[in-house]
Design brief:
Order of helices and strands: HHEHEHEHEHEHEEHEHHEHH
Number of helices: 12
Radius of gyration: 20 Å
Bound molecules: N-carbamoyl-L-aspartate
Oligomer: single chain
Strand content: 5-15%
Mean pLDDT: 93
Structural class: alpha/beta
Shape: globular
Length: 331
């Protein structure tokens, strides 16, 4: 067996050794120090984005970033577009509705077309789990997964981790309750892996119909009642009912779901008095979260999550193109 050296901090490694990945496809591929490295990189961009009227950096000047979105998105697409433009890349958006996919083109043909355009980085969102990894295998440049089916949404987990770290100072001993439609959620799967790897105690809170069997393997403890899941929680992360992914009825009605699993001020009082409220968006107000909780300026970190999204995506675009830019130690 080769000796595996586990660095206690990312500062013990540099260049490609520190982040030995060509693509960002899943949190499952990342070691805890690789996650921390991306968070540290993103922290610098968060400062640049907040403190300056002029946010242009230019390190990706001359490079082409294609955002290939085969599934609808507002904030993620916009966030990747802004991130790429702030770094100076030529950013092109491809929407599924306007693409040849509608004309019956296979995913592999689409991948080969994207590759032939000589993109330097491709950001992909797709409704099928595994589709992004399939494309990544076929192209010559870095691929970032912006959400594949129920599977993974790694940059969402990174921006959530950055938001938590900024607000709570760290992860060790922190209780994070991820609540709602865990079954259909790539955000939940990515967050369970990343937050448990970073040292938090993660609870998955959902009705039995919306609890996938693998939560234990992803590092979380299942809880079937909100009172149990929220008790002593430092962070409460709410998820939307992803009706577009449901085949049949998983809940009796949105009203009953709100009564049993909605985050109201009364229910939030079960968590710690300083508990942070998070939501990846889009929110369904009055279903999984009530408006007075979502808009509470002291407790809600929802707009900060959006802000951190741009910083995290700038970090990922920068790190994954270092080899192609010929940076020393990254080829
Ligand atoms: C999430 C997604 O697309 O998985 N949204 C997002 O990226 N901001 C969650 C969702 O759609 O509910």
């Amino acid at each position: 067996m080769p000796e595996v050296i586990i660095p206690s901090t990312s500062s013990e490694l540099t260049g490609r050794a520190l982040f030995p990945h060509r693509h960002l496809l899943s949190i499952a591929d990342l070691k805890p120090w690789e996650i921390r490295f991306l968070l540290d990189e993103a922290e610098q961009w968060a400062k640049v984005n907040r403190g300056n009227a002029r946010k242009h950096d230019g390190r990706l000047a001359g490079m082409t970033q294609i955002n290939a979105f085969f599934e609808n998105s507002t904030r993620t697409l916009l966030s990747f577009e802004i991130a790429g433009k702030r770094l100076g890349a030529d950013v092109v958006n491809m929407h599924a509705g306007q693409s040849s996919v509608k004309k019956g083109e296979t995913l592999i043909d689409t991948a080969m077309t994207l590759n032939a355009m000589a993109a330097d980085v491709i950001v992909i969102r797709h409704a099928s789990s595994g589709a992004v990894a399939l494309i990544a295998d076929m192209v010559d440049c870095a691929v970032l997964n912006a959400g594949d089916g129920w599977h993974q949404h790694p940059t969402q987990a990174l921006l959530d981790a950055l938001t938590i770290r900024r607000r709570k100072g760290g992860f060790e001993g922190l209780i994070v309750a991820i609540c709602g439609d865990i079954l259909h959620s790539r955000v939940a799967r990515s967050n369970m892996l990343s937050l448990s790897a970073l040292g938090a105690q993660v609870r998955a809170v959902a009705p039995p119909t919306l609890m996938p069997p693998e939560v234990g393997m992803l590092g979380a403890t299942p809880c079937y009642r909100m009172d149990e899941g929220l008790d002593g929680a430092d962070v409460v992360m709410m998820l939307r009912l992803q009706n577009e992914r449901m085949d049949g009825a998983f809940i009796p009605s949105p009203r009953e779901y709100h009564m049993l699993y909605g985050l109201t001020p009364e229910r939030l009082a079960i968590a710690r008095p300083d508990a942070l409220v998070m939501h990846p968006g889009p929110m369904n107000r009055g279903v999984e979260i009530s408006s007075n909780v979502a808009d509470d300026p002291d407790r809600s970190a929802i707009t900060e999550q959006v802000e951190m999204g741009v910083a995290v995506r700038m970090a990922c675009l920068d790190v994954l193109t270092r080899g192609a830019r010929g940076m020393e130690g990254w080829s």
